[in-house]
Amino acid sequence: MPASPLVDAAPRIDALVDALAGSHPEIEVRRPGAETAAYALDAGTRREIVGAGPAVAFPADAQQVQRVVRAAAAAGVAVVPRGAGSGLSGGARADAAQLVLSTERLTRVIEVSPGDEVAVVEPGVVNADLNAVLAPHGLFYAPDPASYAISSIGGNIATNAGGLRCAKYGVTRESVLALDVVLADGSLVSVGHRSIKGVTGYDLVSLLVGSEGTLGIVVAATVRVRPLPVARRTVTAFFPSTAEGAEALGAITRTRVRPSVVEFLDEPSLDSIDRHSGTSLRARGASLVLVELDGFGIDEQTAELSEALIAAGGAVRTESDADGAVLWELRRSGRGIDEGEWFLGGDVAVPKSRLPEVYAAFAGIARRHDVRIAAVAHAGDGNLHPSVTRTIPEGGDPAHPDPALHEALEDIARLALSLGGTVTGEHGIGSVKRELAALELSDRVIDAHRAVKDALDPQGLLNPGKAY
């Protein structure tokens, strides 16, 4: 019987680790083993069971990243770039035949320039930590994923992360001006510019943002930062049903107010928060429109928004700063996953006017596949995060959900596409959504993706098996 690919790869991994230890002892490299098992998975694949983890390198600067990539290329070993491991699509999943290149030690905020409204950061800087550095300058970094307290800027760039404030400030791509990138041959290139405007050559920055580490490894990013708003305010509107709340979202668009955040939580999501956080949100209604306003004229914004939501049937309240902070934390982390349930999460997006149709379709999809569906939405830009669950029967394997859950998510993805949307709004394709990507991307478009990949990584060494 022929040896498995993992067995065949073991000598190459050992030789690579030995070569790095001999030529670059300043770079910490851990051999495959039980102590590296956590580096085989990310948050999206954490329920999988692994034995020995992959080899992991921990470069501390751009030059060390180059040395690791060159050594891996010479050894013919694939490299899986990894940030904080908070991704939800298996984009950092790695096996024992691969080398994980962790950016967790690349944590310098190299520069903050209030005059240019830019910051230069290494990829391992955590989103929240960057904002802590910016705050004394009266600035903030706008991209705001729910995992902002733990996710790194490099990981945000890899997936073109969005988050809550996309409604007003856009996704990560809108905040990235320039990148320093190590390519698959170990060369270091700079793309983009520090200026806000610039159209010289192809827009390689936009190409690299969202490429999930398949085209290069970001070692520094020049990002736009913005003045902290003079005021922020939280407004809530509870509705008697999910359908009524979803329909009311259009009333916000019809106002002259442009909130920084518009989130929508359906009835099952409120139930989940109450169950896992000990709250009583359901006592206030069966769905919630959660809005953050910011900037000048906050009283006028509040009045116009409140009038529109009341007219749409909402029970509207302007929250205190303390109560607002609690609600935002509940939105980010209040829901939980029951150990006795299979769980799969989605990340579709549709034109925001079509959100009511998506919520209306959930009941039929749930019945068809005998699953439960809940969804929170970044309603300001039409991005939904449906969760599909089913109780694990006696003898069921927690690490391998019933195919019905995957089928339900595929139905949701097909629905999103039929409404002019996409199968992933901000989490990326990674390794777990490639079949869904094939629903959206034509063969000719996939060929174009592969041509770009071949031009920058002809050996296919950077994060193989991810993104398309």
UniProtKB/TrEMBL annotation:
The keyword Flavoprotein applies. InterPro entries: FAD-bd_oxidored_4_C, FAD-bd_PCMH, FAD-bd_PCMH-like_sf, FAD-bd_PCMH_sub2, FAD-linked_Oxase-like_C, FAD-linked_OxidoTrans_Type4, Oxid_FAD_bind_N, Vanillyl_alc_oxidase_C-sub2. GO terms for molecular function: FAD binding; oxidoreductase activity. Keywords: FAD, Flavoprotein, Oxidoreductase. Residues 49-228 form the FAD-binding PCMH-type domain. Its cofactor is FAD. Transmembrane segments: none annotated. This is FAD-linked oxidase C-terminal domain-containing protein. The lineage of its organism: Bacteria, Bacillati, Actinomycetota, Actinomycetes, Micrococcales.
